[in-house]
Structure formats: C-alpha cells, structure tokens
Design goal:
The protein is of the alpha/beta class and 439 residues long. The chain has three domains: 123 residues, Rossmann fold (3-Layer(aba) Sandwich), CATH 3.40.50; 242 residues, pyruvate-formate lyase- activating enzyme, CATH 3.80.30; 58 residues, OB fold (Dihydrolipoamide Acetyltransferase, E2P). 34% of the residues lie in helices and 22% in strands. It contains 13 helices and 19 strands. The strands form five sheets. A six-stranded parallel sheet has the order 2-1-3-4-5-6, sandwiched between helices. A five-stranded mixed beta barrel has the order 15-16-17-19-18. Helix 12 packs parallel to helix 13. The longest helix has 24 residues. Bound molecules: S-adenosyl-L-homocysteine (SAH), iron/sulfur cluster and FE3-S4 cluster (F3S). The site of FE3-S4 cluster has 10 residues, from helix 1 and helix 6.
C-alpha cells in the first residue's frame, strides 16, 4: 500500500482540512505513515498568516528536496493558505513540488495525484472562494474524545492586516442539520468534546435561513453524549446578546470567551478595520461577565501595527491590564503583501516592535499568574485528556474555562471522564492539583 504523510501548519481550520485530505487519500488507497522516509506522498498543509509561518514552511520544503533526490517517485504537494497566496511562485522557488492546491480545491487532490506520472508536470489548482465543492469533503478522524467541526468557511471581514479573507474566500455557513448529524455521529463514536470552527463564528448563518450562532449552540447542546462544546473564533463586533445568553443557558457550552481585541487603542482599531471601539468592547466584556460570572476571557493582540506610537501602545497596555485576561496570544505585526496595512505609512521598526511585545507579555504573564492563583484551594471540573507529554504518571485535562491542569495519576480516571480536581499550585500557563473522590 502506498503511504502518505501530511504536515500541518496554522490554525485548527487547517487541522480539520488535513483530516479531510487524509480521508481523500485513504479513499484512493493510501495509508498514513509518520515516517518521512517511508512516505510515497508528502503534503504540506500550509499557513501564511505571518511571514514566520511561511519561512518555516519554506525550510521544510527545502528539507524534502533531499528526500526526493533519494526517491524520485515521491509526490510532494503544497496545500492550504500559502498555496493559495503564492500560487505558481512556489514552483519557481522549489521545482521539486509536484502540485499546489488551495483550500478551495481539496477535493481535486485525488485526481491530481492520479494524473502524476513518470514525467512530472507542475499542477496548480487554486480556485477562488466561488468553488465550494471542498466544503463538502467529509472529515475522516481517528476516534478520539475531542473533535473539530467546521461550521462555516471563509471570512468577509477584511481586517486590514489579515491575509485570511484573500486565501479562504467568502463566508459561507453549513446547515444546522449537517453540523448536528456530524456531531451525533461523533458522539456515537465516543467523542465527548467538540470545537465548532470558523474565522468568525458569530456571523454564522448570515444570509441563510439557518438561524444564527445562538440557535446552533442551542441545537448542539441537545446532542446526547457530547459533554462540552467550544468554539472559535469570535469576532467581538458580532458577539450578540443572544450568543451570550445561549452560552449562559447551555450547560455544555464552556465558560470561556476568546475575544480577540487586537489592540486597545481606538486609533489602531479603526486603522485595523475591526469595526468596534474600546468602549464597545469594554461594555461587551461587562455584559459577558454579568451573564457568566465564572467565565474565563482570553484574547489575541497584535503589536507594532503601522502607526502604533509609544502612546498608542501604552493605551493597549493599559486596556489589556484593565480587561484582566486569563491569557493572551500576542503577535508581532507581520506585513502581508496585498493587504491594506502593508501599504500604510509608519511601519514600526522591528526592534521597537520586539521591545513592546516583551513588555506586553511580561504584563500579561503577571495577570495570568494572578488569576490562576485565585484557583488555588478550589476544586474544578476537568475533562480527562490522558497522560501528559513528559510523564506517563502525570495526567492532564482542561477546565471549562480552558485552563490546563496536571495531577498525579490515580488509576480510576479515564480519558473523556469529567472529574473533580483540587487546585494546589498555580503557574502562569497551568495549574497543578489532586484528583478528588467522585461525589
Ligand atoms: N479569524 C480569527 C483568527 C485569525 S488569525 C480572528 O479574527 O480572530 C489569528 C490571529 O493572528 C489574529 O487574531 C491576529 O491576532 C493574528 N494575525 C492575523 N494577521 C496577522 C498579521 N499580519 N500579523 C500579525 N498577526 C496577525
Ligand atoms: Fe482575519 Fe479579521 Fe477575518 Fe479574523 S476576522 S480571519 S483577523 S480578516
Ligand atoms: Fe489558518 Fe493560517 Fe490559513 S491561520 S486560515 S492556516 S493563513
């Protein structure tokens, strides 16, 4: 049997696409391998959200050149967002690539592989978002307790720094029926936690008669066997009171709000085309905390956006401190050609960017630690994920607020169980505790 290996970069949407690609390859008689040297086909499912992602991927493509020299029959495909962005330029830079396939052409991969013969030609399939056939390629997962389920594809927001809308095409939602059937099947196979995926889940259902994201949450909440529901990513502008209330009412929907703010300065938010002000966001968080007092709050932040002065950066620092985030994912602004921000004046010097990032991270780490310390002595409900990476006898899981917790393995806990763990130690990124008797 021929063997394939898929290397995945980028976000959960890409992880899900890789599972769908794997399914397509299995259909044409390939089986998975984890050993590069054994593979007959290596696919890179790529990300281009920041330049650093692209550089890493180019490095990997370079490594694969050596493998192909030793095994000329090896098929090398570049799929995903970077394929869509760079198109033919990829062949120029790395002629050993056989095909380049964008996220809207996943379904073409089996045909393309069948076309590849002794004599190699470069094959390109990068339709724009009008082709939605790929949206209906089913996910083939290994059975597990967690699963990602796409609820919508594409993005219409065009934040001025972001490449995603250009490579993922226009927003389109799956039906509630299709999503629920997939999750019901997952539950029957033993899945306990689903994460609903979309670039902007709060605009789910727009332009359809499907109802909105709140309706979807309420529908998924009814599915037997599923214990926890997560979702990402929320756009603050579109987070409605209806969704806040659905999260409050639905027992299985986790008490965690990931609300990327990107900047804490109105000047920058406007330049980013985010569609909200700090005042709006502050009020949104107030309403969320009012409805869900135990909810955790996390965010994404971009440092060094064009025009970010020391003063504007200080505004972001102050805002982040005020919001008291449980965690923040912080990124250096990366110029993406083709986006409006790449053309803006006042690009920030890299040294300045890095110094600001450090300052922001230091401040946030203090915040995170302080908030985690408040958990010490409390008992939290945790879904068991299994042994931690470093130690078979230390098990790990997450709270409803998405905090990672470690505890010494007792022997009664099983993967997918909901157990009680008493928190003994708090660190910046995780908690440590002791498993409690089931009560
Ligand atoms: N649709 C999601 C996720 C987009 S990508 C959302 O809107 O939140 C994830 C994060 O990458 C973004 O939240 C943003 O913080 C960051 N990001 C996107 N483009 C970037 C760029 N050009 N430079 C640096 N960070 C970027
Ligand atoms: Fe990019 Fe903005 Fe769309 Fe998120 S909402 S994917 S940051 S354009
Ligand atoms: Fe995801 Fe990266 Fe594409 S973040 S949508 S894989 S550009």
């Amino acid at each position: 049997m021929k063997k394939y290996l898929i290397l995945t970069y980028g976000c959960q949407m890409n992880e899900n696409d890789s599972q769908r690609l794997g399914g397509l390859l299995q259909k044409i008689g390939y089986e998975e391998t984890t050993v590069m040297e054994d593979a007959d086909a290596i696919l890179l499912n790529t990300c281009c959200v920041r330049e650093s992602a692209e550089l890493k991927i180019y490095g990997k493509i370079g490594e694969i050149k050596g493998l192909k020299r030793d095994k000329p029959s090896l098929i090398v495909g570049v799929c995903g967002c970077m394929a869509q962005k760079n198109q033919k330029a990829l062949f120029k830079r790395a002629p050993h690539i056989d095909f380049v396939v964008g996220p809207n052409n996943l379904h073409d991969v089996p045909n393309i592989i069948a076309q590849i013969g002794e004599e190699r030609k470069h094959i390109l399939a990068t339709d724009d978002g009008i082709n939605t056939e790929s949206d209906h390629v089913p996910t083939v997962r290994k059975q597990g307790m967690t699963a990602w389920v796409p609820i919508m594809y594409g993005c219409n927001n065009f934040c001025t720094y972001c490449i995603v809308p250009y490579v993922r095409g226009r927003e389109r939602s799956r039906t509630i029926a299709e999503i629920c059937t997939e999750i019901e099947d997952l539950a029957l196979e033993g899945c306990r936690e689903v994460t609903l995926l979309g670039q902007n889940v709060n605009s789910y259902g727009k332009g359809t008669d499907e109802g909105d994201f709140a309706d979807l949450l309420r529908a998924v909440n009814e599915i037997k066997g599923i214990e926890r529901i997560r979702y990402m990513t929320s756009h603050p502008r579109d987070m409605s009171q209806r969704v806040i209330e659905a999260v409050r009412d639905c027992e299985k929907v986790c008490d965690h709000f990931h609300l990327p703010v990107q900047a804490g300065s109105d000047v920058l938010l406007k330049r980013m085309n985010r569609g909200y002000t700090t005042e709006y966001y502050r009020d949104l968080v107030r309403r969320i905390r009012e409805a869900n007092p135990n909810a955790t709050l996390t965010t994404d932040l971009i440092v060094g956006f064009p025009g970010e002065t020391d003063e504007l950066f200080e505004e972001t620092l102050a805002f982040v401190k005020e919001m008291r985030y449980d965690a923040a994912y912080t990124f250096l602004y990366s110029k993406r050609s083709g986006t409006p921000a790449a053309e803006m004046d006042e690009q920030v010097d890299i040294k300045v960017k890095k110094a600001r990032l450090q300052k922001l991270m230091d401040m946030q780490n203090e915040n995170s630690l302080e908030l985690n310390q408040a958990y010490v002595g409390r008992t939290v409900e945790v879904m068991v994920e299994g042994p931690s990476k470093s130690d078979e006898q230390t098990w790990t899981g997450r709270t409803t607020g998405n905090k990672i917790i470690l505890w010494p393995y007792v022997g009664t806990e099983k993967v997918g169980d909901l157990v009680n763990v008493r928190v003994d130690v708090a660190q910046t990124w995780l908690l440590k505790g002791t498993l409690q008797e089931r009560g």
